[in-house]
Every structure is written in C-alpha cells, then in structure tokens.
Specification:
- This protein starts with 14 loop residues before the first helix and ends with a helix.
- It contains 17 helices and 10 strands.
- It has a two-stranded antiparallel ribbon with strand order 1-3. A two-stranded antiparallel ribbon has the order 2-4. Strands 5-6 form a two-stranded antiparallel sheet.
- With about 525 residues, the protein is mainly α.
- It has one domain.
Length: about 525
C-alpha cells in the first residue's frame, strides 16, 4: 500500500561437551551475567593494564554511502531507499500496538544511517510521543544504547526467548480508544528473566549476503589446526528448512536481508508485511488497519525518482538499502601484510603518519582520566603492530579478516562488477561460538543455543559506541576481557591478550579503533 510517512586467564573447558548437547531447560538455567538495571559496565577488565580504549573516532563517518560502481538506476533506488529507511511510522501506517522504535534509522543511526545505537537514545522521547502513556523502563537511558528485551522463560517455565516490546501505542492521538499496558519489566528483571539486544550495524551486509556458503565454509576450515590448538570450535547456524547457512543477527539466525527486514519491521515497529502479515499484539481495541499494512504498491503515488523503489514494499526497499550500503572504510591502511609468524611488536619503519582516534563521547568508565582532556593519536606503526598482535594471539581465528563474494547481482539481476568476486574485510567467520557463562543469554535461536553468538563483524568498530550483544559496555577493552568466562571458546586467546605488555595491548586497541 502507498504510505503517508512522516517525513582474565581461565581454564579451558570442552565446549563441545558442555554446550552443544544442552537441552532447552539447561539453556534456561545457565548463569546470566547481564546487569539488571541496564547500565553499561566495565566488567572484569585487566586492572593492571595501562592500555586505554581511545574511544570511537570522531570526524567524518567512515560509512553510510552506497557501493561503488552502481548504475544510475541502482543509485536512484539507493537514494529512495535511504529516505524510506528514515521514515517515521504512525498508527495509520502500521505502528504498534507494541513497538520498540518508530523508525529504522532511529536504531541504526551511528555513525551514519545504517549503523547502530546513537549518542542519544531516541527511545526515551519516542515512548511518550503524540501523547503515548508509556513509562521508561529502568534499563533505557538517554545516553545508553537502544535496546530490545527478550524474556528467557514463559510463566510456566518453558523457554520463551521472544521479543517483548518496550512500548505500546496506548494514549497516542492516532490510536483513539487503545488500552494496552506495557509488559511488567520490573517484575521480570527481579526474576532474572530479562536479556537485552542492541542493533547490529548494517553497513556492507550486501557483500555478506553475496558470499556463498562454500566460501564461508572454506574460510572457516582454513585455520582448523589453529582452532584445535586454542580450544576453539564453532559451527554455522543453518536454516531449518533449507539447511543453508544463516548469517544475520546476533546469533546468525536470519538467512537473508529480506527476512531480516521483514522480521524487524514487524517485531520492532509492529508493521505487518508480506513476510510477517499478522500483528504480534492482538489487543482488540488497538487494531486499526487492514492487514498486511506493507505490501507491493500497484501505483506510483509518490514518485521519488526510482519507480522500482516506489512500487516495492517497504521491506523490499529496506533489504535493498542494506544490500547497496558500502562497507565501512578504515581510518588508515598499511602496506604491511601481517603473517602469523611475525613478531607482535613489529613496527613499520617509515610509518610516521598519525591517525586521529578522538572520542566523540566522554571516556569509557574506568578509562584513564587523561583521555578526557586530549584526543589520542595512534601512529600507523602502532596500528600495524596491533593488527599483527591481533593475529598472533588468535583473535583472527574467529574474526577472520577476509571473505569473498560470488557473482554479485544485488539489484534487478544486474551484475555489479565492482563487488563481483570481491574480497572484503568484515573480520568475522559468521559462525556461532560458545562464549561461556559470562555472555550467556539463555536464549536459543535456530541451532544457536543460549551460550552461542555469531562472531561480531569488527569492520566499523572504530566508530561504534556500545559493545556486546546487550550493550553492557562502551569500553572496548572491557568488551575484549568479557570474552573470557567459564566455558568460553575465547579463554586461551584472552589469556594471551592479558599476558601482553601494556604497549602491545594498546596497539591492539588502536588497531581496532582504526577499523
């Protein structure tokens, strides 16, 4: 339909024996370490380390533009889809009855449209927009991350794991007569039944979608010996219907960007669509529209310059927006080609260029006080050395630097030469790994159990504000340390990180903030 939008060194534990055979009930009883008040924390970062997260890079965003080499028609579609991605939903266009946000770009906002949580959380203001009567849950704060909530268990003790929307449209001027109370979040928090998720960045995801299962499997298998030596296993999440690799979302639970878009539209904003045509919240007094609310448009009632985009449903447009988004650009590139045998303190002899890594936020909790008064400068030599150390200690075993696309045709069946058989740098194997009790969320999605998460792609991490699946910290050093806990596949790698000198640790942080 045409829409009128508003413009530590821990012992290694056998992951296979401990995690992969878990039942749903065992998943549900796993220890949950997430802060129940929703605050960001410093975890158990190495207190003896002098290394400091320099914070997210300031300056011009390193992402947000279209892929190179697009045709005029493809570029017009991208421009139109960018506008649609920023459209604000209202009840007449499908918002509610339950919702977490009112626009895709409100969640995927930083450092540019398509990213992750912004500096100011829009959920605080949107909770009461247009007269809505929502209370702000304790875990939603103005300077904290955008969050969604999942309940671990149902009242009868069976596994839940689904999203429970933060807000309802009750009280809004465009939802007359709607009476729909919010979930009782305080009671669920007290029962330790709440886990959080934050938005994943969407930059470069078209490249990920264009990477074949075989290419992912080959990249995953290439370092099998190193995995075994460090106690790392991992597996791909797969579709229960097709058996193909799923790769999008915190647990790699979604198989495609179209499914990802359709599900998010329905779950986060309440808008029914061709993929998910029914309301999740069926409160009778809060049903206002014929369903589904988002479908293919048969007439171009609101020309945008791309007829193809105008006639497409929102979820198709959202999926194409993500497919056409270019990947993040690192702050610097080096001529060095690091190898696993090189020394961790290798420096580039002629690298005198400095890269500004100035934070756009106050220093992360626990960071050195000096970071608040002066921006840090990381030399190319430091970044190059940090990349080599990242490889040497084993981080790159899961955060694989390179993946390669196939015969890419992301729009209209037209081949995009610039990304066909293209090697890109997401720093992820897109597999799921058991991360131990410290990060366990006790939620199963597909074949990924309550301990497992997809290796988060690290491209763009230099301008990311919040880390880990629940946004528990804004400190990159803490995020690294939190990879270690009882049963985590990362324990030996984090042990190696903790044995580094403070300068080598700093180099790793500088490298990551350059991405």
């Amino acid at each position: 339909m045409a829409k009128a939008h508003l413009a530590c060194n821990l012992p290694l534990v056998s992951i296979t024996a401990m995690m992969l055979g878990l039942t749903a009930a065992q998943n549900a009883s796993a220890q949950n370490k997430i802060s129940t008040d929703g605050s960001t924390t410093t975890g158990h970062s190495n207190q003896s380390s002098a290394a400091v997260d320099p914070g997210p890079r300031g300056g011009v965003p390193s992402a947000g533009g279209p892929l190179p080499g697009l045709s005029a028609a493809q570029l017009a579609f991208f421009t139109s889809s960018l506008a649609r991605f920023q459209a604000v939903e209202t009840v007449p266009t499908g918002l509610g009855p339950g919702f977490n946000e009112i626009a895709c770009s409100n969640c995927h906002a930083f450092p540019a449209v398509g990213g992750s949580s912004p500096t100011i959380n829009p959920q605080v203001a949107d909770a009461t927009l247009m007269g809505a009567t929502n209370a702000i849950p304790s875990f939603i704060t103005s300077t904290g991350p955008v969050r969604e909530v999942r309940f671990v268990l149902n009242p009868d003790g069976t596994p839940d794991g689904g999203v429970h929307d933060l807000f309802t449209i009750a009280g809004r001027s465009d939802a007359p007569g709607c009476v729909d109370p919010q979930p009782r979040f305080a009671a669920q928090l007290a029962a330790n039944n709440v886990i959080f998720r934050i938005p994943t960045p969407t930059f470069g995801l078209g490249l990920v979608e264009e990477t074949s299962d075989l290419a992912l499997q080959n990249a995953f298998s290439a370092n099998a010996h190193q995995k075994t030596s460090l106690g790392i296993s991992g597996t791909f999440n797969v579709s229960g219907n097709t058996g193909t690799i799923t790769r999008f979302g915190w647990k790699a639970q979604n198989p495609s960007l179209l499914v990802f878009a359709g599900e998010a539209y329905n779950v986060e904003e309440g808008v029914t669509n061709d993929n998910f045509p029914f309301k999740r919240d069926t409160t009778p007094s809060c049903q206002f529209n014929p369903l589904p609310e988002d479908t293919t448009n048969l007439t171009d009632a609101d020309p945008s310059g791309s007829t193809a985009a105008d006639l497409s449903s929102d979820i198709v447009v959202f999926a194409m927006f993500m497919r056409l988004l270019a990947p993040p650009t690192p702050a610097t590139s080096t001529s060095a080609s690091p190898t696993a045998s090189a020394s961790s303190n290798t420096t580039a002899s002629a690298a005198t260029t400095t890269v500004m890594v100035a934070s756009v936020l106050p220093p992360a909790t626990g960071a050195a006080a000096s970071a608040a008064t002066s921006p840090s400068k990381a030399s190319v030599a430091s970044i190059t050395s940090g990349q080599q150390t990242f490889i040497n200690i084993g981080c790159a075993i899961c955060h694989i630097q390179n993946q390669t696309t196939g015969n890419a045709a992301p729009l209209g069946g037209t081949q995009v030469t610039s990304i066909t058989n293209f090697t890109y740098q997401p720093f992820s194997d897109f597999a799921v790994h058991s991360m131990g009790t410290g990060l366990a969320d006790r939620v199963t999605q597909g074949n990924a159990n309550g301990f497992q998460f997809r290796s988060a792609p690290l491209w763009g991490v230099g301008q990311r504000l919040f880390f880990l699946h629940d946004g528990r910290t804004n400190n990159l050093l803490t995020a690294i340390e939190d990879h270690a806990s009882s049963g985590s596949e990362a324990n030996q790698v984090i042990s190696a990180f903790n044995m580094l000198s403070s300068s080598d640790q700093q180099n790793v942080l500088n490298f990551l903030r350059s991405l």
